[in-house]
Structures are given as structure tokens and as C-alpha cells.
Amino acid sequence: MAYDYEKSIRPGKLPHIWCPGCGHGIVMKGLIRAMDTCGLDRKNTAIVSGIGCASRLPGYLDACTLHTAHGRAAAFATGVKMAKPEMTVICCGGDGDGTAIGGNHFIHACRRNIDMTYVLMNNFIYGMTGGQFSPCTPTGAKASTTPYGNPDPIFDISKLAIGAGATFVARTTAAHPREIDKLIVQGIQHKGMSIIEVLDDCPTTYGRRNKFRSVVDMMKHLKANAVPIKAAAKMTAEQLQGKFLTGVLFHDTEKPEYCAQYAEVIKKAQGA
Amino acid sequence: MSGARLEIIERNCKGCSICVEFCPKNVLEMDVFLVTAPRPEDCIKCMQCELLCPDFAIKVHDE
Question: Which of A18, A44, A94, A194 is deepest in the core (most CB within 10 A)?
Fold first, then answer.
């Protein structure tokens, strides 16, 4: 009945450093369940991250883990996958790490369609560095660097990934824990770049500045505003205002995968 | 429905109260900064508390 998460966590690592109520722990649980469901061999699984709260995640997991430079998770992961194509590569990171500082690496990993799974925890803010606004901070929201409200429009990470060429794009929230592992499993099984965007809560640096009085308020906000993609088809644009679509947003099995393409190049070069 | 044993790992609990709020049967309660389970006999083993606990602090066991 009770799930044995501890077997996948390095001994003595709990309690983790995340704040009370931070959704990253829920995502980590989902990732552990997904890895177990896929039957991944720990010695043959690389989990790569950049810098940030969400990027602390691989440090807790008992697998081959790599904690790299800020925003460069996708670049390092591409290197791992190219050198060892038989490995399962999973990237973890936050919205600031993945789409601002590492935006370039993110879009080019999507463009190449290299076989990896990127779990992007979008908590709408730069949490670890003190609550500066990120490209995903909603317009009008307050952050430590936008005390009068954020004037910038947001990045829609899933649309960005689809536009850049990722072939499996899905979105869920930390308030839907069973959907997290379901989508990560599909992402791992998909041959190509999979982006799993998990909308998360950051009660410490985002919630308290934006009228979410408690952790539970943030979780309820995520739960109330998530609309499954099938239900959204029957809703008007007005009803969808301020909501986020969840589920598998895009899935393409036609586009060639990068490692396979590169193997062809190697074959040609050696055969010539 | 009975037969559930709720294990609370106090060392991991940070008192965010997500489990208390999302429990459909009101089994759990906050004791200042720590969660307690005063009504385990009401538990229907929906696993919401275990799934939503970000701190690996609560487990639902079959008895």
C-alpha cells in the first residue's frame, strides 16, 4: 500500500531542503514512481539538472546524477545522450533555469529532438535566488524585483517547446500527483524530446507576495484552474481565460530522433 | 472502512498542512507544526495525503 520511496533516495538525504509546502517534493515522488514503472536501471539512468530549487532534485535520487551550470542541463544531457545513447536521460529544472538562463539550450534540444525527458517545474518565479521574476511570472504578479507588478507577458513553455520542435509535450500541476507519473512514463517511453511541464507552487517567494495566504491556497489555485485538454475543446475562449490546459498537448512520432540521425552520419563517414 | 495505519515520519514533516486540507475524511489534524492522525479508523485509503505530501512524511499502510 504505502509506496517505498526511500529505496530510490540516497541514504540520509531526507528531510530535503525545500520549503514547507513546496511542490518539488510532489514532483520528485512522481518521478520516482515513473522511473519504477518504466523499470529503469539506476546504473543506466542519468538525471541531469542545472541550478535552482528544482535542480536540487537529482541530488536526492539514487541514480547517475549530474548537477551542472545554471541553465545548461539540456546541453550536458545532450552530451551524455550522444556519448551513451543506451542511457535513459532525464533533465530536471525550473522555469528560470530552463527558459530564461537556459532558454537557448532548451529550444535547441527541442529542435534536435534528442531522446530525453525534460521535467520542467514551473513555479512562476526564481525561488532560490530570492524571488526575482522569471519569464513565467504572470503579468501583474509581484516579485521581489517587480514590487508594483510584473509588466511582462509570460512564456507559455509548452507552446514554446512545440514551436521549437519537441515531439512530446505535456502539462500537469503539482496538485495532480497521479497525472505527474503517468505523463513522465509516457515521456520516458517516447523516442524523442519529451517536455513535461509541471506547474508548481512556491509559497515562500511567490505565494506570500501574491495574495495566496497559505500553501493550501496555492495548491487549490492550481487544482481549480487546471483544465484537461479534452474538456477545453468544449469551452469558449472566455471561459479559458486564466486557465491552464493539462494533459498531453502534443505528440508526434514521425520526426526522426537525433541519436539515430547521428548514427547514420557516423556510418556514412566510416563507409566513405 | 478500517484497517489503515497512518505512519507519520515526524523528522520529515514541515507542517505545510497540505495533507490535512486534502484529506476527504478529515482523518488528519495539525498539532501546531506537526501533523497528527487522531481518526485513523475513518481513513478510506485514497492515498491523497501520501501522494501530496512533498516531504515524504506520511505513509498509509494496510493493516
Answer: A94
And the C-alpha cell for A60? 536526492
**Domain boundaries B4-62, corresponding CATH code:** 3.30.70.20
Nearest CB among A3, A5, A215 relative to B18 is that of: A215
Residue A148 belongs to domain with CATH number: 3.40.50.970
Pull the grid cell for residue B37. Answer: 492522525
Segments forming the whole domain that contains residue A20: 12-269
Does residue B2 carry a pLDDT above 80? no
Phi, psi for residue A37 in degrees, rounded to 5: -60, -40
**Which helix (H) or strand (E) segment is A230 a member of?**
helix A229-232
Instruction: Give me the number of domains chain A comprises.
Output: 1
* DSSP classification of residue B5: E
- Min distance B25 CA to chain A CA atoms (Å): 17
Interchain CB contact of A15 with B (< 8 Å): yes
Evaluate whether ipTM surpasses 0.95. no
Chain B contacts in chain A segment 57-116 (CB below 8 A): none
pLDDT for A188? 95
Residue A110 lies in a domain: yes
Domain boundaries, chain B: 4-62
Grid cell 495548491 is found at A219
